[in-house]
Amino acid sequence: MKTFMTTALAAASLITAASAEDTEDLLDDLATGTGQYTTASYNFGSLTGITADSVVSWLQSEATGYIHPTAMNGGAGKPQPLLSKADGVYTLSFNNRGAYAGSVIGFASTIDASLDTVSSLTFTYTFTSDCTEDVSGEIALVYETADGWQISASSFTTAVGDTVTVTVTDALVSSTVYAVVATEDGDNARGTMTAGTISLTASVVPEPASAALSLLALAGLAARRRRK
């Protein structure tokens, strides 16, 4: 009986290990330097009118990283968006623009894991801005499925400590993922800075081969227990 219980506990442990998800950090290679200016000058305006295709058109020609349209963030002489990393935590800060209905920052990243092992994508922003006026906007994930490019968004009104999250679980057909932060600020907030901690991750389940190896190990363990 004791041997059976030990084997059962070992089996449960191996099954749990085989089914546990890992997390791939999609911001890890982006947190260096400052945002790059682009020649894009069209008005996104807090995701109003933003479509999956428009985000792809904007970001697909850029190297993996984070960028923003010049006109949306004031052009030369204005503070550039900054993505920084300290103690494993990423912070994004950017200048709110009253003109063009706000500011837009876009991220382009690549998933390293096999797409058939990716169970979900999650984009989260927790605001630490000290703006005296509310700054409204949205965050969005843009990703490709068998039905084409998709966009999933969630709106926010910035207040210190507020968190906004977008999670998608669709099956992916492209390892390229785009994420967008867009604000539409009031006149009293223009020229102020918005900042917050940010994360962009992929949840990854073990490869089928890894799960099979775990099951083989389980079978071997059971056989060994029986011989004893």
Q: How are the secondary structure elements laid out?
A:
Layout: H1 2-19, E1 22-25, E2 36-38, H2 52-59, E3 65-69, E4 82-86, E5 89-95, E6 103-110, E7 118-127, E8 135-145, E9 148-157, E10 163-168, E11 176-185, E12 193-204, H3 208-227
Parallel strand pairs: 2-3
Antiparallel strand pairs: 1-12, 3-6, 4-5, 5-12, 6-11, 7-10, 7-12, 8-9, 8-11
Helix pairs in contact: 1-3
Q: Could you explain the architecture of this structure?
A:
The protein is α+β, with helices and mostly antiparallel strands and 228 residues long. Helices cover 20% and strands 40% of the residues. It contains three helices and twelve strands, in the order αββαββββββββββα. The chain has helices at 2-19, 52-59, 208-227; strands spanning 22-25, 36-38, 65-69, 82-86, 89-95, 103-110, 118-127, 135-145, 148-157, 163-168, 176-185, 193-204. The strands form two sheets. Strands 1, 4, 5, 7, 10 and 12 form a six-stranded antiparallel sheet that branches. A hairpin with a 2-residue loop joins strand 8 and strand 9 (148-157). The longest helix is centred in the C-terminal third of the chain and has 20 residues, at 208-227. The two termini are 13 Å apart. Residues 41-46 have low confidence and may be disordered.
